[in-house]
Write a structure and sequence with these properties.
Elements lengths: L1 H17 E3 L7 E5 L8 E2 L5 E4 L6 E4 L6 E5 L12 E2 L5 E4 L2 E4 L5 E4 L7 E3 L6 E5 L8 E5 L4 E5 L4 E7 L5 E7 L11 E8 L4 E10 L8 E3 L5 E4 L9 E5 L6 E4 L12 E4 L3 E7 L5 E7 L4 E6 L8 E3 L4 E4 L3 E4 H8 L12 E5 L2 E5 L7 E8 L4 E8 L4 E5 L5 E9 L2 E9 L2
Antiparallel strand pairs: 1-2, 2-29, 3-4, 4-5, 5-6, 7-8, 8-9, 9-10, 11-12, 12-13, 13-14, 15-16, 16-17, 17-18, 19-20, 20-21, 21-22, 23-24, 24-25, 25-26, 27-28, 28-29, 30-31, 31-34, 32-33, 32-35, 35-36
């Protein structure tokens, strides 16, 4: 009996090492896991991590603060072709391997139609899903009501490869690719669309480029839907691409020299100001950086960790790298001496009347500011550098009745505000 007790203690100790192990050479690491996973991770609102376990074929829940095993959920997941796990905003429901699962009990509520592995909650609802379908089907994706078992279908011309919904429910993004066999392979295009998640209407095609053999498999929105972007998992020039979600839909492409000869990489936003970028250069060489969007610079770099789908953990201000590593973003900022981004401009009022736009009572840092005005379709009507001499800016400008977006770039500050013209 004593031998069995000793063996049990050793097994329990080994489990603690596997969950919650911390390397000695990186002070930013909160915990690591050594398990092999078979899905992309998902972060629950309570800060815990849900991810498929390759060895046992089920789903495990990991404590987001310590990396320790919380529980196993008896839902089968594939050992290949990774599934996405998605969680409703209120945390009560999860989608795992085409099954809707109750978070509290781990029980399957319902099974979903089709074979797609890309299923997302249409936030803020916890009973409406977006399901990606395949190109040969009647629809490109459907909106599925879990409780009623009803659906609405939507079609675009190309084959949908990825979808994602913003946490605030304002937008969803769709990536697609021309798959027509009659099109020369070299001239197939990759498309990237932004949709209104509540009306299900397209807002804008953000990108239409020659595919370069690439496919977009994973999309992410930043915390408050300021940005949307993707890494480039397969083919073409290695880079990360993201856009602002409001006019003028500014586009960034980030490339690094040590990415050029390597394989796939992923992108994950940290709040609205930073983005984690990963690149894999063969089985043993990898590179990840954290990019400061507002200041256009790298603030952290490592050769130890990478992920096709890095995620930000809002509860613990940490970055989840493939479910295997958790990095403390607080420690990273402290170690590199990066301050939190500046606050938005204050006391800015916009008035328009009789063909004159007046901006009054604003506080400026730089004597030169860049000002642009766009309509709601993204058409830029004015883009001008202005020398400020006092707290009032007056610009003669004839605008038809409608809604417009004013944007001001003032050194590190960036302000965006809607205004309405009534003639």
């Amino acid at each position: 009996m004593k031998r069995y007790l000793i063996l049990l203690v050793l097994l329990l100790c080994s489990a603690v090492v596997l969950f919650g192990q911390e390397p000695e050479d990186d002070p930013n690491v909160m915990w690591t896991c050594k398990w092999n996973f078979s899905t992309y991770p998902a972060v629950h609102p309570n800060g815990n991590i849900l991810i498929g376990h390759r060895t046992y074929g089920d789903v495990i829940e990991i404590n987001g603060l310590t990396g320790e095993l919380v529980r196993r959920i008896d839902v089968a997941v594939s050992d290949y072709d990774p599934d996405f796990i998605d969680i409703s905003n209120d945390g009560t429901r999860m989608v795992i391997a085409r099954k809707v699962v109750d978070y509290a009990t781990g029980k399957v509520i319902s099974e979903l139609p089709g074979t797609s592995k890309i299923i997302k909650f249409l936030h803020p609802s916890n009973n409406i899903l977006l399901i990606r379908l395949y190109s040969q089907q009647e629809y490109s994706f459907i909106k599925w009501n879990i409780d009623e078992g009803t659906s609405e279908g939507y079609k675009i011309a190309e084959s949908v490869t990825a979808i994602e919904v913003s946490k605030d429910g304002k937008y969803f993004a769709v990536a697609s690719k021309d798959m027509d066999e009659d099109i020369d392979y070299e001239y197939r295009h990759t498309h990237f669309y932004l949709y209104d998640a509540q009306t299900m209407k397209p807002i804008r095609q953000l990108e239409d480029v020659v595919s370069e053999s690439r496919t977009i498999d994973a999309i992410q929105f930043s915390e408050n839907s300021k940005y949307v972007g993707y890494g480039q998992p397969t083919g073409g020039v290695q880079k990360a691409t993201f856009f602002t979600c409001e006019p003028p839909y500014r586009k960034w492409e980030i490339e690094r020299e040590n990415w050029l000869n390597g394989g796939a990489h992923g992108l994950g936003f940290i709040k609205d100001e930073f983005v984690y970028l990963s690149c894999i250069r063969g089985p043993l060489v990898q590179n990840s950086v954290i990019y400061d969007i507002q200041n256009d610079k790298i603030i952290y770099e490592t050769e130890q960790y990478q992920s096709y789908y890095p995620l930000y953990n809002y509860k613990y201000n940490s970055i989840i790298i493939g479910g295997r590593v958790s990095l403390s973003f607080d420690k990273i900022l402290q170690n590199v001496g990066v301050e939190e981004p500046p606050q938005p401009m204050k006391n800015l009022n916009i008035k328009y009347a009789n063909g004159l736009l007046r901006i009054i009572d604003y506080e400026t840092i730089s004597p030169n500011i860049t000002l642009s005005i766009s309509d709601t379709l993204g058409n830029v009507l004015l883009n001008r550098t202005i020398v400020t001499t006092n707290s009032i800016i007056e610009i003669p400008l004839v605008l038809p009745a409608g809604t417009y977006i004013l944007q001001i770039q003032d050194e590190p500050n960036y302000h965006s505000q809607k205004f309405i013209v009534v003639n």
